[in-house]
Specification:
The complex is a heterodimer of chains A (about 100) and B (about 500). Chain A is mainly α and about 100 residues long. Chain A has 4 helices and no strands.
Chain lengths: ~100, ~500
């Protein structure tokens, strides 16, 4: 019961590790470019939770700053990523990364 | 929880910022140049490729003035430990500005690129933005700045790779670059968050001190190290983080391929060296063993993998751009050898090798572009008989390739010699690594020499045409690059001295 009622650092870290795992799983198994990018967002948000949790329990503000910058960068990355994916769709009529493979070994 | 700062504190913050800005002038100048190029593109109507290109080259050349004045400044942290100015950073400032200038020159040479791209507008501005990002990568001493500058370089590079929007290969390269880049930077930032959790600091010097003072949990440290190495290894294109590079190098416009293979790779090495030397504690009994895997072991694995994989897979390549991509993976392996010996000689050798790599690799891509202008292809078979039709280009490409193999009398030979002698100076521990390096160089001789073989000893199947006249500017440029490659192979003293001076980093404790 103690574990459930008192939320501590470990709870945050567990959530973050789970998110990281899901993100990595999505990146490695999915073939759709958009879903891969969603997996990357999960990884970035896992890092965010880590930073915020560590910041809360160590008393420094660096972690909060870091996670703010990660949020902004994730938005910038999504903008560029979607532009590239739209362009890929125009050319290949698909966003399946396994079908976009014109260059061979 | 957090109090408002008092008036005196605000005054001192403003004073620190003012000193910081005084030492940040080259970056500010280049950022202004970046914005100026966008404005010029918006204001000027009509065809402006040459105007923008010459403006970029002149603007980048102007930054040498501001960078050279930074030699006088004593190495210092600025902006509250976010950023640093030392000889190591100044070296890379020269390096990246020079690589940006050469890239612009190479872009002007590429006829196909200039013909097919509808709007050149942001292209040169993005090249300048990437120079700024790479300079900041080499000077960051805070995890946050490292992450931000790597993303600045990454995001610009994705756009530049996919700059030919109508071309399937260019777009495909951009998508692959983006997916691998986004994943590896996500992994890296998760690793950073673990390091922050272990130490409570984001400045790498403080992290180094904290880890050395209090030790760390070996398992957690290993996980964080692997994640961070994934981010850096992706930037330098080392095995096993290399999957993007052949496709990206083949698909991207050739000038951008040259730029990525030299600039972005060197920036990755700069940031890796700084992090590895400063943040990771070295020596001392409890720190040698992170569950049997320390950073030196990881880098050795990366280096051996890159040397063998890059050189062996390059043997089968028929496309010259793709072959040079695999060769650049192999060169990442050689450069890692210079880093993992962890002494001044090794750092000096790495910096010198990077300089040589800048000359010979951009030179090789330059000639590949001039040849593609004439034949319209980058296939090895289309190089037949070109030695007679394009004498200067043929001779220059041969020199660059000899230098890439590492044969005398070229700069590539001196670079490899310095790296291997740095390894051997460590005693017998690293002899086997040097041996692998020499053997893989011998393998590389075969595929590099296929190109001169096709150019000089095989007859062209097409009917003979008149000798092509490339532009005078480009003929002169490749002649200069070729002569420099040989000149610095014979008289390397100034460059090795420069590299020696530049190997001093702020907060360094290992040598």
């Amino acid at each position: 019961m103690e574990l459930l009622t008192n939320i501590g650092l470990n709870h945050y870290l567990t959530i973050s590790a789970l998110l990281f795992g899901f993100g990595l799983f999505a990146v490695m198994t999915r073939r759709n470019a958009i879903v891969i990018l969603m997996g990357v967002e999960l990884i970035l948000n896992a890092a965010n939770i880590n930073f915020l949790a560590f910041s809360k329990y160590s008393g420094g503000m660096e972690g909060v700053m870091f996670s703010l910058f990660i949020i902004v960068l994730a938005a910038a990355e999504a903008a560029i990523a979607l532009a590239i994916v739209i362009n890929i769709y125009k050319i290949f009529r698909s966003v399946d990364v396994s079908s976009i493979d014109t260059m061979k070994e | 929880m957090f109090e408002l700062p008092s008036g005196a504190e605000i005054q001192s913050i403003i004073a620190t910022l003012k000193t910081g800005v005084g030492l940040f002038i080259p970056e500010i100048y280049l950022s202004v140049l970046f914005m100026l190029l966008i404005v010029v593109d918006l204001v000027v109507k009509g065809r402006k490729n040459n105007l923008l290109a010459s403006l970029t080259v002149l603007g980048l050349a102007g930054s040498f003035f501001f960078i050279s004045r930074q030699h006088a400044v004593k190495a210092a942290e600025i902006f509250f430990g976010m950023y640093v100015l030392d000889e190591f950073a100044v070296f890379f400032k020269y390096f990246f500005v020079l690589s940006g200038m050469l890239t612009v020159l190479v872009s002007v040479a590429d006829d196909e690129f200039n013909r097919k791209v509808r709007s050149i507008g942001e292209y040169y501005a993005l090249i300048v933005a990437m120079v700024v990002g790479m300079i900041m990568m080499a000077s960051s001493v805070d995890l946050l700045m490292m992450f931000l500058s790597m993303e600045l370089v990454g995001l610009t590079a994705y756009v530049l790779t996919g700059y030919r929007k109508d071309d399937a290969r260019s777009s495909e390269g951009a998508l692959k670059y983006l997916v691998y880049g986004a994943v590896s930077s996500g992994l890296m930032v998760y690793g950073f968050s673990l390091v922050y959790g272990m130490t409570g600091e984001t400045n790498i010097m403080k992290i180094g001190a904290e880890l050395a003072l209090h030790g760390y949990d070996p398992l957690l440290m290993m996980l964080a190290s692997l994640l961070i190495i994934a981010g850096f290894g992706y930037k330098i294109g080392a095995v096993p983080f290399h999957f993007w590079s052949p496709d990206v190098y083949e698909g991207a416009p050739t000038p951008i391929t040259a730029y990525l293979s030299v600039g972005s790779k060197a920036a990755g090495f700069a940031i890796l060296m700084r992090f590895f030397y400063v943040a990771i504690p070295h020596g001392g009994e409890p720190f040698q063993d992170i569950v049997g895997m320390d950073w030196v072991m990881l880098l050795i694995a990366l280096s051996i993998g890159s040397m063998i994989y890059g050189n062996v897979v390059a043997l089968w390549q028929k496309n010259v751009k793709r072959m040079l991509a695999y060769s650049s993976i192999a060169h990442a392996g050689y450069l890692l050898l210079g880093i993992l010996v962890m002494d001044e000689l090794g750092t000096q050798a790495t910096l010198f090798y990077l300089l040589g790599y800048l000359l010979m690799n951009i030179g090789a891509f330059y000639v590949v572009i001039l040849i593609a202008n004439r034949t319209g292809s980058e296939n090895l078979d289309d190089y037949r008989g070109l030695g007679r039709k394009m004498p200067l280009a043929g001779a220059a490409l041969t020199v660059f390739l000899i230098s890439l193999v590492g044969l005398p009398p070229t700069i590539g030979f001196v670079g490899k010699l310095m790296i291997f002698s740095a390894l051997l100076a460590k005693g017998s521990v690293y002899i086997w690594l040097a041996l692998i390096g020499v053997l893989t160089s011998v393998i590389s001789l075969y595929y590099y020499m296929l190109i001169p073989l096709n150019m000089y000893l095989r007859e062209s199947q097409q009917p003979d045409e008149a000798p092509a006249q490339g532009g005078m500017l480009h003929q002169a440029a490749i002649a200069v690059l070729m002569l420099l490659t040989i000149y610095f192979g014979l008289f390397f003293q100034p460059l090795t001295d420069f590299a020696k001076v530049s190997s001093s980093m702020l907060g360094l404790s290992i040598y």
